[in-house]
Amino acid sequence: MRMLYNIVAGVILSVLVMACEKDLSLYDTPDCRLNFRYYQYGDLLDAENVTDEMRLTLYSFIYAGGEMERDTLWFQISTMGFLSGEERPLALQQIQVEGEENAVPGVHYVAFDDAEYRFLYCVPANQDTLSIPVILLRDASLQEKNVRLKFGFKENEYFKPGYVGLTERVINITDRLAK
Q1: Are residues 166 and 52 in contact, defined by beta-carbon separation less than 8 angstroms?
Q2: In terms of Cα–Cα distance, which of 34, 52, 36 is closest to 44?
Q3: Distance in angstroms (rounded) separating the CA atoms of residues 178 and 89
Q4: I need a labelling partner for 120 at 20 to 30 A (CA). Which of 59, 71, 77, 156 fits?
């Protein structure tokens, strides 16, 4: 009796497994996209679980010592889409925030299109993740005020911005003690 039960259960299970098989269409979307990577407790988060607080980085030169004129923050990004056998540049852009003191390129940070650092904003061949720098500059004005640098991905011939919620970052920059 037990043997008969096992045979019937095996046949039913086999039929169910074969019935679930479905031909999926091949992924053929040519668009490649970029996202910032966010982690919590070591786990990679999806767009629905990333909060505005996680998108914000607070930075003060006050902790770096009086002689440091620039510092670099690194942000992990990942690509979506097919890998490429060639290096592909990505583009970043500043996003102005109304009602805030916005950072000024060349004063508070090195512009994203600065020729000297352009090589750092390239996705290497056959890779889908990398870390990109944002180089902050210590300006005397930061001793009196905070500035905000909101930035995100800019579409170019290689990449488009990815998922809403994973395409922008914000850095509050100062040279004083602040909350």
Answers
A1: no
A2: 36
A3: 36
A4: 59
Secondary structure (H, E, C), the chain: CHHHHHHHHHHHHHHHHHHCCCCCCCCCCCCCEEEECCEECCEECCHHHCCHHHHEEEEEHHHHCCCCCEEEEEEEEEEECCCCCCCEECEEEECCCCCCCECCECCCECCCCCHHHHHHHEECCCCCEEEEEEEEECCHHHHCCCEEEEEEEECCCCCEECCCCCCEEEEEEECCCCC
The verdict on pTM exceeding 0.90 is no
Tokens of 53: 């607080």
pLDDT tens column, 91-133: 999 999 999 999 999 999 999 999 999 999 999 999 999 999 9
